[in-house]
Amino acid sequence: MAEKLRIDKLLAHMGRGTRSEIKKAVKSGKVSVDGKVVKDSGMIVDPSAQAVSFEGERVSYRNVVYFMLNKPAGVVSATEDNRDRTVIDLLMPEDTLLGPFPVGRLDKDTVGLLLLTNDGALAHELLSPRKHVDKTYEALVSGNVDGSDIEAFASGVTLDDGYVTMPSELVVLEVRHDADGSANDEEDAVTSLIRLTIREGKFHQVKRMFQAAGKRVLTLKRISMGPLKLDESLPEGRYRELTDEEVKLLKAHRGASRA
Ligand code: URA
Questions:
Q1: What is this structure's pTM?
Q2: Which residues are annotated as catalytic?
Q3: Does the domain spanning 5-58 belong to CATH 3.10.290.10?
Q4: Atom 3, ligand 1: residue with shortest CA distance
Q5: Does 3.40.50.2300 match the CATH number of domain 135-225?
Q6: Pocket residues for ligand 1 (CB within 6 Å)?
Q7: Alpha-carbon distance 223 to 64, whole Å?
Q8: What is the 174 CA–ligand 1 centroid distance (Å)?
């Protein structure tokens, strides 16, 4: 997609300074296009066809960004908040220039995969209730999650507001018995490590599904969203750009509506 824009805007977007700093840089001959020094900071350029350099270094331009964050606990999935740190506060200042925002919400105490982008169309489609994008979570849950929970989750669970969830896939990975009896709460003497895949995104959905089953979610981590899998080499609180392949997979997936 060819997009023409002012060279000072392009350089500001790519983190090379404020518009007035860039104006000064242009005046002192630090900016060139196709090898020729630029005289006018309002010059219109086509970054897909012209080579823009700043202080002798080629500046590649893009207007969309996609980041995968391994969200830590304690930050909120918002762009601004009066009280809490947000996921945007975890980004380097230069990575906030194009205005990425979180695609959907994870609770403050939930960790794991969160996509941050400024691609509004993609975000909209991934979140659309009609698209039923799979989201997979791993959770530590109080009590013994068993076959009856698996069956109930597979056929749909009635939440506290009467909503019946779509079928979901529950897998019990491990049932843990607190051998030394140190658990405070008697019910926490047995906990279950589970993996749950849901196809919708109701408020606090995973916690409310287990609440309906008489259990409590003790820790919650999202490990995938559609075709995008959490890169387990990313420590909590760290992020990276999506690879071209991951962006391609997400874009291909958005066409795949499964009503
Ligand atoms: N379900 C929840 O209960 N919390 C989340 O953060 C995500 C899904």
A1: 0.86
A2: 107
A3: yes
A4: 204
A5: no
A6: 106-107, 110, 204-207, 220
A7: 24
A8: 21
